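Quick start: read one record
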Amino acid sequence: MAIEEIRKTKIEKVKKLRKAGINPYPAVSNRTHSVEEALINFDNLSNSKEEVILAGRIMAKREHGGSVFFDINDGSKIQALIKEDVIDKDDFNQFREFIDIGDFVEVKGTLSKTKTGEKTLLAIDYRLLTKALLPLPEKWHGLQDTEERLRKRYLDFIFNPESRDAVEKRAVFWNAVREFHIKNGFLEVETPVLEITVGGADATPFQTHHNALDIDVYLRISAGELWQKRLMVAGFNKTFEIGRIFRNEGMSVEHAQDYTQCEAYWAYANYKDMYKFLQECYRYVAEKTLGTLKFNINGFDVDLGSDWPLIDYAEEIKKQAKVDIWKASEKEIKTRLQELKIEFNKAENKARLIDSLWKCCRKNIGGPAILINEPKITSPLAKVSAENPDITERFHFIIAGSEVGQGYSELNDPIDQRERFEAQEKMRKSGDKEAQPMDEDFVEALEYGMPPTAGHGFSERLFSFLMNKPIRETQIFPLMKPKS
């Protein structure tokens, strides 16, 4: 039967129920126990013959003469049994006629085991809680298509325990991140999502209009980097934020357009302090979330409990791509990129070209490893190294060929910061949409003085990597293009 025909039949059932004085959508349930509670306390409840009321969605229904076995699920599953000679005959017939797989019911009865030993709720009464109008997929193959699973996540979570488990582990992951920061003295803060000047990362923002102020604003591309640094100016010593950020960029197994990120700032610390702190954070979170420090991610065996080697940015590119970024011209880098079959925009400046080389090399590093000594031209917000003015005190965590976190000694020289913003502005005017715009207000805040500060940031990409799944499959409701 076609879905629309099934829906019409179910709507007719709703009408008949209402006519019989039965509300198919009551406001409240009389449930006394969750299914899980009933199963945990099964022996006590069954021995005492205590009446319980369980509720959930009917996931299966099997008729045997004057008996109907059915499974109810509220996150946990139990079998229930309704018998014609136990409850009112009209009620029994009504159950057979009007209650379908997919409906929510509450069932009153006592717990016992069947002859085969299955834990069962013996019904003495029942009540319809919600009449479903659309049928659930009869078999899992009906939701095997990835696009359909992501579009109808509510069905995916019903039939795919692995997807449901990812939602629960995602909550554990972010709670563990929060716990680790708080127990290390960091104060959780919230900073603006709407910004007049977008900053804190190299990314393309989403733009919208603020009607009340009649101004164009941007959805933030970082979890309050420039705002949290203002808090350092204000005298806060340790802050962090876990929140959504938005980047109007391409989609891939690693990239989403709106996602959760954690950023933290630590006064009187430098990038070495921060990467040691963050390394312990990753271990803590992985152990809490998945109970292990060893993973297979994108074909790489990764042990977070091992030593994390330091990798020099320029040396790694020279080793893998055979390019000395300190000596090579833009033309030479472009030629090498072409030889390596790496796509790039011919209008890109040297900073972007070097970044393209690095991203190619990064794919071959299983990690965990810590990348250091990134060039100043690719790090507009990081402090310059005291030993080498061409590099910055910045680090990246590399796992399974990708970046899954970064941080740096924050730039707190307002003159240097202004010059770097001006250089970024030139890049924007030459067509680089991801270059950061001038933020006069932030520079002014720095002029009041910000102590030496280290910062870090990592996103839910880390969670998706630990789960070894594409990032959209670890998001609860990923953005989907509407069906045409």
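DSSP finds 16 helices and 18 strands in the chain.
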